[in-house]
Design goal:
Helix content: 10-25%
Shape: globular
Strand order of the largest sheet: 3-2-6-11-12-5-4
Strand content: 35-45%
Structural class: mainly beta
Largest sheet: 7 strands, antiparallel
Radius of gyration: 16 Å
């Protein structure tokens, strides 16, 4: 039997992405997100309107989607409650967020140059997708950002037949109903992401 419910948010989550954008000073900001879907060479992401990532996308419409593997849970958690926006917006302060100007250093991520866009990539993420922003649709407090893929990088250990990612080897980190999940088990709860 089913029961009618009234959830605060209809959010079942998705793969964790470390979204890299570039700010006015030329620095790369990292924003953990989990609202995305891809089809062919197009990717759709969801972002809060009052975020540094959104501000950066409007400044420089280029991003890198660093697809997180399940072993990166601790590094992602270390930056989950940080924003690159200063001063920290009131609603984020109320949620316990703080400012961080260098999330690469804090999380222990290694920056890599990108091939087609300005934001840096994250070496520790086995899949990195460079994208150009095609369209931004604003809604009630969030934006739907349409991207076109310009370059994809994948760890050679995940590949079969040259350029195909082997699903048996790839272990993405999933953010499902506000909890992290690996392939076989839940690995912890997290704060609400920036999207």
């Amino acid at each position: 039997m089913h029961k009618q419910i009234y959830p605060k948010s209809l959010y079942w989550g998705n793969t964790v992405i470390l979204l890299n954008t570039i700010n006015e000073a030329g620095s790369t900001n990292i924003t953990p997100i989990s609202s995305s879907w891809a089809l062919s060479n197009n990717v759709i992401i969801g972002l809060g309107l009052n975020t540094k990532a959104m501000e950066n996308i409007e400044y420089c419409p280029e991003v890198v989607l660093n697809i997180a593997s399940s072993n990166l849970y601790g590094k992602i958690e270390s930056i989950a409650k940080l924003t690159g926006k200063q001063p920290v917006p009131i609603e984020k302060l109320k949620s316990g967020f703080d400012y961080c100007g260098d999330k690469f250093a804090l999380a222990g991520f290694t920056p890599l140059e990108s091939k087609t866009v300005h934001p840096l990539r994250i070496q520790e993420c086995p899949i990195q997708v460079e994208c150009l922003v095609d369209k931004i649709s604003r809604r009630n407090g969030y934006a739907i950002v349409e991207l076109s893929v310009s370059c994809v990088h994948a760890d050679e250990l995940l590949l079969k037949n040259g350029d195909t990612i082997d699903a048996d080897l790839w272990k993405p980190l999933i953010y499902n109903l506000r909890s992290y999940h690996g392939i076989t088990e839940s690995i912890g709860r997290n704060f609400k992401f920036d999207n």
